[in-house]
Amino acid sequence: MSISTLSSRPFTRGWLVVVVALFGISTGPAAFGLASMGLVSGPLAEEFGWSLSQISGAVSLMMLSTAACMPVAGRLVDRWGPRRVLLPSLIILGVAFLLAPFIRSYWQFLALYLVMGTLAVGTNSVAYMRILSSWFDKRRGLAIGIAGSGTGLGFAYVPVLSAALVSEFGWRGNYIGLGCILLFVTLPLVYVLLKETPEEVGLKADGAEADMDAPAPVEGMSLREAMRTRDFWVLGSVFVGLAFALYGLMPHLVPLMMSRGLNETAAASIASLFGLAAFGGRLLIGFLLDKFDARKIALLFFSLSALGLFSLNFSLPYWAFIGAALLLGGSLGAEVDMLAYLISRYFGLSAFSQIFSVMFSAIMVAMGLAPLVFGLVFDQTGSYAAILALGGPICVAAIGLVLLLRPYGERRRGAALSTT
């Protein structure tokens, strides 16, 4: 079926954009960089003699540099358009993975992850979320939930894929395999199929036929106006705390499970299950966002996070670790996807990429520091117990902060665009 034929079928064309964004996000730095680290950290430590905190430090450097550059990427997306930022970033990220096998020293390892966090910053969710918010309004929550579940999808298949690549070809083969996926699968899909707005194919949001003589205005707050509201700071505080607790755990999940007596295969399966639960959770959250008040959904899923993190403080049988992985993975979709949805509803689309990128950069700081903190705690104490003990209270605090958010109004769900 040709793309022109798909364009004549509004629903089909819009959901094709969602599927491409889904796969693109699944190959981004969060999934490829974080979810594979637990499988290569052992071989890297064995070959180069680096500690777990040193290896985790590279991921932290990537996250922190991404946080610093994310507002710039958001501004460029609003000014130049998502594709002009996304496509070059994909090329850079793919090449960076292909160069990884040639590292010979720790500074080169750090430099590589610094490149992923700076020059490849456009491969993160900002560009994809801006495109999806243009394509969908009434079903924006579901569209963002499906595409945003790409991170969970990546967390599901990357540990299994990396385990197979490392087992067969070593840690170098893992980086080469991931780089090839970026350059020969993700890049062509985004280039050919991911259109920035529905107007490019004669449509408008949610698949209606576009009136090309009277295009819909893009309305909303500026970044400065948004920062004057209480909701901006509440949202930022909630999602920064959750990012620290949940993403700090991600690269350490396999070592954590192995420290509890699981073998590498069983630990990787738990990590994969975590990703599958995140994938399913994001789909569910996206569906619920279009039906119910997002604040109530946040309260439910943040509670699941708290329960899952509290449970990891205890010695558990294998089946109980499966339950914890399901709780934590299922609630993982409550962060970036819900943040993107709420920003579009509270602040509109006029400066969506800038507002989202500023908040996301703060989240990335937490995501960057957390793996390092988790690694340092383990190196100093020989256990993750001390840092895990903080996870549950952080989620409880997030629940309290959600109660401070004002209602964004039923009229915003399905309205033309949010303007206040």
Question: What does the model show?
Answer:
The chain is mostly helical. It has one domain (3-208, 217-408): MFS general substrate transporter like domains (Growth Hormone, Chain: A). The chain is 75% helix and 0% strand. The chain is built from 19 helices and no strands. The termini are far apart. The relative contact order is 0.16.
List descriptors.
Growth Hormone, Chain: A, disordered C terminus, 420 residues, mainly alpha, 19 helices, 0% strand
Task: Please give the structural blueprint.
Layout: H1 3-7, H2 10-26, H3 29-34, H4 37-48, H5 52-80, H6 82-99, H7 106-118, H8 125-135, H9 140-148, H10 150-193, H11 223-227, H12 230-249, H13 253-259, H14 264-289, H15 294-311, H16 318-332, H17 336-347, H18 352-381, H19 385-402
Summarize, please.
The chain has 420 residues and is mainly alpha-helical. The protein is built from 19 helices and no strands. The chain starts with a helix and ends in an 18-residue tail after the last helix.
Q: Could you estimate the helical fraction of the residues in percent?
A: over 70%
- Given helix and strand content, the structural type is mainly alpha
Largest sheet: none
Write down the CATH topology.
Answer: Growth Hormone, Chain: A
State the CATH superfamily name: MFS general substrate transporter like domains
